[in-house]
Write a structure and sequence with these properties.
Elements (H helix, E strand, L loop, with lengths): L4 H6 L3 H4 L13 E4 L3 E4 L7 E5 L2 E2 L3 H6 L15
Antiparallel strand pairs: 1-2, 2-3, 3-4
Length: 81
């Protein structure tokens, strides 16, 4: 199950837009929808991947951290959970 395009336009990687890890630039933390099941941060050096479970993006930094080292082509579909 995919997410709405309007929602994708406003969602950002929470690790890149807040706290001490906030990235610089006009629009940090942009996400790309991957295989209709993941939101992947496009910031250089971030690598967080957020699963979409039952059509709802799980935008918790801890959840994104779990998948940092997993290459995009090895992310499970559907996302676990």
């Amino acid at each position: 199950m995919s997410i709405d395009a309007k929602l994708l336009e406003i969602l950002r990687c929470p690790a890149c837009v807040s706290g001490p890890g906030r990235r610089q630039g006009p629009d940090p933390g942009r996400l790309t929808l991957v295989r209709e099941a993941w939101l992947v941060c496009q910031e250089t050096g971030c690598g967080r991947k957020y699963p979409i479970k039952d059509g709802i993006p799980v935008m918790l930094i801890d959840e994104g951290d779990k998948w940092i080292d997993t290459p995009v082509d090895r992310l499970p579909v559907p996302a676990p959970g």
